[in-house]
């Protein structure tokens, strides 16, 4: 169950990271409420996962899911550069996440 909590927490981290862009400095009410809700839920689920998972592994995977997802959504939603070098580096992060999962 801890891995499921961690996965959902990572997806919610993507949500609040992308949500920050839409809040326009927390001047837009609806995106701000959704972003803060994603933050709170993400931290709560991360804390649940930390009950059984090692903190180093869980934190690295949580931030990795958020980083990879946010980088990919940045390309899709905001027209950030879609270069092979960028995708290669994202792939390295994914390889690290999979490696951590395999050894934990």
Automatic annotation (TrEMBL):
UniProt-recorded name of the protein: SugE homolog, probable drug efflux protein
Listed NCBIfam families: PRK11431.1 (NF008512)
One Pfam family recorded for the sequence: Multi_Drug_Res
Family as reported in the entry's similarity comment: Belongs to the drug/metabolite transporter (DMT) superfamily. Small multidrug resistance (SMR) (TC 2.A.7.1) family.
GO cellular component, one term: plasma membrane
UniProt membrane topology term: Multi-pass membrane protein
Compartment(s): Cell membrane
PANTHER family noted in UniProt: GUANIDINIUM EXPORTER, SMR FAMILY PROTON-DEPENDENT DRUG EFFLUX TRANSPORTER SUGE
Transmembrane segments: 29-47, 59-78, 84-103
Keyword tags: Cell membrane, Membrane, Transmembrane, Transmembrane helix, Transport
GO molecular function list: transmembrane transporter activity
Domain of life: Bacteria
